[in-house]
Amino acid sequence: MNESKTITPPYLSIAKMKEVVEKLEKKSLNKLESKDFRAWGFSTADANLAIAVLKFLKIIDENGKIDIDKARKFKMSEGEKEKMIKELVKSAYKPLFDENEEPWGLSDKDLKDDFIRKYDCSPRLLASAIPLFRYLCSIAGFIPKDQVVSRPKKKDNTGKCLKDKMTKVKPMQGRTDSDDYVIPILDGISIVVSSNEKGSYDSLLKGVWEGELAPLKKLINDIIKKHAVDNAASSELEGN
Fold first, then answer.
1. At what angle do helices 123-139 and 14-26 cross, to 10 degrees?
2. Can you give the residue ranges of every domain in the chain?
3. Phi, psi of 230 (to 5 degrees)
4. Which helix (H) or strand (E) holds 194?
């Protein structure tokens, strides 16, 4: 009979996990909820994943109540903090440690196989779950921190993809001094973007992805998530 599967391991990005650790080091709280992370600038998805990590490590309970003793040790010396995190990691990832004394030292292939056997993870989840596991092992002192590599980013073709989708149209009624562009997001859904300066087509695109029109980028991503577009369509417009 196959071994019963345990709770799905967390798969927050390393960058966001570093922010979670920073909050634990600097703040004194009795409870943590996803709304707290959203208030600190996390997206809704990352806020939920951050809470999942803390529950998985048993730093907070199912209601978000913080284990004060564990949280306090994040503020202590590196030695004390590492000792506590070692215990958390070994307990949380017990199925891995039961089979291997040093699971962090396994090859990528072997560690991936172990995750699949123990947690029945999908390839997509593993792409973040394994780097997070290695990062937690690094801050626990199991492996040097400089050996942990974040998940590689995909080549960003956002500007090109967006440019292919944009169509120049006549200025909106009552305005004659700027260019308007229609961007089709999904079937039947488009948004109109107006350049506030007499800039070129390319300067508008540059503004979107260099922050001047960051709200547009967020709006596009929010629309895509809301309508559950498949991963390929979503990755075209993600700039992260």
1. 40
2. 14-147, 158-237
3. -65, 165
4. strand 189-194
Confidence at residue 121, expressed as pLDDT on a 0 to 100 scale: 84
Q: What share of the chain is helix, strand, coil (3-state, %, to 5)?
A: 55, 10, 35
pLDDT tens sequence across 2-49: 444 467 899 999 999 999 999 999 988 899 999 999 999 999 999 999
Neighbour-count burial for 20-58, b at 16+ CB within 10 Å, e otherwise: bbebbeeeeeeebebebbeeeebbeebbebbbbbbbbbe
Q: What is the pLDDT, as a whole number, of residue 20?
A: 96
pLDDT digits (tens, 9 = 90+) for 191-216: 555 554 444 445 545 554 455 555 66
Q: Is 193 in contact with 213 (CB distance < 8 Å)? A: yes
Q: Name 87's Cβ contacts closer than 8 Å, sequence gap at least 6.
A: none
Which two structure tokens, joined as six digits, stand for 70? 């564990």
Pick the more confident residue, 178 or 102: 102
Other CB atoms within a 10 A radius of the CB of residue 180 amount to 15
Helical packing angle, 201-209 and 214-226, nearest 10°: 70
Alpha carbon distances (Å) from 133 to 47, 56, 114, 145, 231: 18, 12, 12, 12, 24
Using CA atoms, how far apart are residues 187 and 227, in angstroms rounded to an integer? 11
Q: What confidence score (pLDDT) does residue 194 get?
A: 54
Residue 180's beta-bridge partner residues?
169, 194
Give the tens place of pLDDT for each residue, 44-75.
999 999 999 999 999 999 999 999 999 989 99
Distances (CA, A) of 171 to 174, 189, 212: 8, 19, 20
C-alpha torsion 134→136→137→140, nearest 10: 160
